[in-house]
Specification:
Blueprint lengths: L4 E4 L5 H12 L1 H8 L4 H13 L10 E5 L5 E9 L3 H4 L1 H11 L5 H6 L9 E8 L8 H16 L3 E5 L4 H9 L3 E8 L2 E8 L3
Parallel strand pairs: 4-5
Antiparallel strand pairs: 1-2, 2-3, 3-4, 5-7, 6-7
């Protein structure tokens, strides 16, 4: 396996972070967000959110895998689940502005979250297609596990029932099913990895 370095993202990594988010949420959600507009609009929204300090998709919550030749080949966004309500306000503000969502603050705050305070949430994991199956995703998960351990929380994530390959990877690393949680209108499996 290649020697992969994991580094903190910087604001200039925002375009790559936006690519990773779009890859992780999937084509169906991207198209739903875009509606009649171009997917470029969706990318622009996620790029703006990645540049912010107070967004769940912030560069401050992002770690990047770098290959020995210096290629930034993978992205992992993770954060304390206790912070979701605060961090997702930026997303809702962008969605109201760009996608025409009409939500009150009360509606935003009452929406079920994809994570909770019982876990350190692995929000986004994506590897560039040319670098898949080289251990990059696993290295990013191990790095997120260290962040979770420092926070004193198990690492948690959601996986779609339509993604058995990802679920198999997570389970091979020790993640276990703890329940179901909603994400973008779909019930997904919530898996957790206990920290040592």
């Amino acid at each position: 396996m290649e020697q992969i370095r994991i580094i903190n993202a910087v604001q200039d990594d925002a375009p790559m972070i936006a690519d990773a988010i779009m890859d992780a949420v999937g084509e169906e959600i991207v198209e739903s967000l875009a509606g009649e507009r171009s997917r470029t609009v969706v990318h622009d929204v996620f790029e703006r959110l990645a540049r912010l300090d107070n967004s769940q998709y912030s560069y401050l919550n992002t770690r990047i895998a770098v290959t020995p030749d210096g290629t930034k080949a993978g992205v992992c966004i993770s954060y304390d689940g206790n912070r979701l309500l605060e961090l997702r306000k930026s997303f809702f503000a962008e969605a109201c502005k760009e996608f025409g969502w009409n939500m009150t603050t009360e509606e935003m705050d009452s929406m079920p979250g994809e994570t909770c305070g019982e876990e350190f949430y692995l929000d986004t994991l994506a590897t560039l297609p040319a670098y898949r199956h080289r251990g990059i995703g696993k290295a990013l998960i191990e790095d997120a596990t260290l962040k979770a351990s420092r926070a004193g929380l198990p690492l948690g994530l959601l996986v779609s029932d339509n993604n058995p390959q990802a679920r198999s990877l997570y389970e091979s690393m020790g993640f276990r099913f703890v329940g179901r949680r909603p994400f973008a209108g779909e019930e997904m499996s919530n898996l957790r990895l206990k920290h040592e």
